Amino acid sequence: MAITVIHAGMLTTVQDLGRRGHRAAGVPLGGAMDAMAMRVVNLLVGNAEDAAVLEFTLTGPELVFTADTTIALGGGDFGAGPLWQPVRVCAGECVKFGAARTGCRGYLAVAGGLDIPVVLGGRGTYLRAQIGGWEGRALRVGDVLRAEGAARQVAGRWHIDERILPPYSETPKVRIVRGAQAPEFDGTLTTAVFKLTAKSDRMGVRLVGPALTRRVARELVSSSVVPGTVQVPPDGQPIVLMADAQTIGGYPQIAHVISVDLPLVAQLRPGDTLRFREVTLEAAHQLILDRERALALLREGLAQKIL
User: Fold this and answer.
1) b/e string for 45-73 if b means 16 or more Cβ within 10 A?
2) pLDDT at position 27, please?
3) Which domains, ranges and CATH numbers included, belong to the chain?
4) What is the pLDDT of residues 60-76, one digit of tens each?
5) Are 15 and 124 within 8 A, CB to CB?
6) Helix, strand, coil tally for the chain in percent (to 5)
7) Within 10 Å of residue 286's Cβ, how many Cβ atoms?
8) Is 136 exposed, middle or buried (CB count within 10 Å of its CB: 0-12, 13-18, 19+)?
9) Which of 281, 300, 270, 184 is nearest to 228 (CA)?
10) Is the pTM of this model over 0.85?
């Protein structure tokens, strides 16, 4: 089955769950910014959770399918159809996404998954190095992607319990654990409101708010960073590193956004605001376990409904 790009949207790329095992060589994890949304939409069409999907930002694409198939949409609402449920698409049908009504990033899974070569263990697009995905770049008008086009039968009428989804908001409270240099700063990080700036991308989300003042001036040796690390550059305005984050950094690390809350940051648009709330490492671990249990229950339930 072929999928033809009629309009490409603002930034539409192929993404998966990232490239693991290559950070020592300087290759970022990458993958979907909102990994939870990607995993759920894949399950809703009977795919493995790490199957390649389309991720689009702020404005979605317009696509034509050459064969009957089943798709699922999730993340932000781009007005192309119902979210979080399997949708039947007929041969020749055009699926048109508009501007994001809610959220920032949308996800489209196709039954059987997109037929994309594996590069360094992943199918996702790493734009800075121009590797993976569709020719290492964002989609353009006229591109034709291949998909397996697996036949899926949906048994009965149902919907998923949306309590499994992240609590998306334009003003979320994002949970963090303390970073290595947290004692060098006052408590402003968890008392202030920060606004997302337009200088944000897949590498990092730049925030603006009260400047975070560091009480010491010592130089730091560059150390490992990961998606979720909150760095503080000299201007005192924090940066939350995201999916395409570099592997090491020299700015102070004041905190780390916990994994289950990274989707909340991924769905913020410029001008949206957030607050940070500190939790213990033990609490963060428990939240991950709770999320994986919920996904396991969803996976088990859908196995009886997506045939």
Assistant:
1) bbbebbbbbbbbbbbbbbbbbbebbbbbb
2) 95
3) 2-154 (no CATH), 173-287 (2.40.100.10)
4) 999 999 999 999 999 99
5) yes
6) 15, 30, 50
7) 13
8) middle
9) 281
10) yes
Residue with tokens 């050459």: 66
Token code pair at residue 59: 């404005």
Q: Which two tokens stand for residue 199?
A: 């200088």
Q: Report which of 182, 209, 178 is spatially closest to residue 282, judged by C-alpha positions.
A: 178
Cβ 29 vs Cβ 226: under 8 Å: yes
Name the residue type at position 243. A
Residue 130 gets the label, from left (phi > 0), alpha (psi -120 to 50) or beta, of left
What length is written for the chain? 307
Task: Give per-residue pLDDT as tens, 167-199.
Answer: 999 999 999 999 999 999 999 999 999 999 999
Separation CA 18–CA 123 (nearest Å):
8
Cα separations in angstroms, 114 against 51, 111, 134, 302? 7, 8, 10, 20
Three-state SS letters, 226-269: CCCEEECCCCCCCEEECCCCCCEECCCEEEEECHHHHHHHHCCC
b/e map 215-225, b = 16+ CB within 10 Å: eeeeeeeeeeb
CA proximity to 124, closest of 58, 195, 202, 184: 202
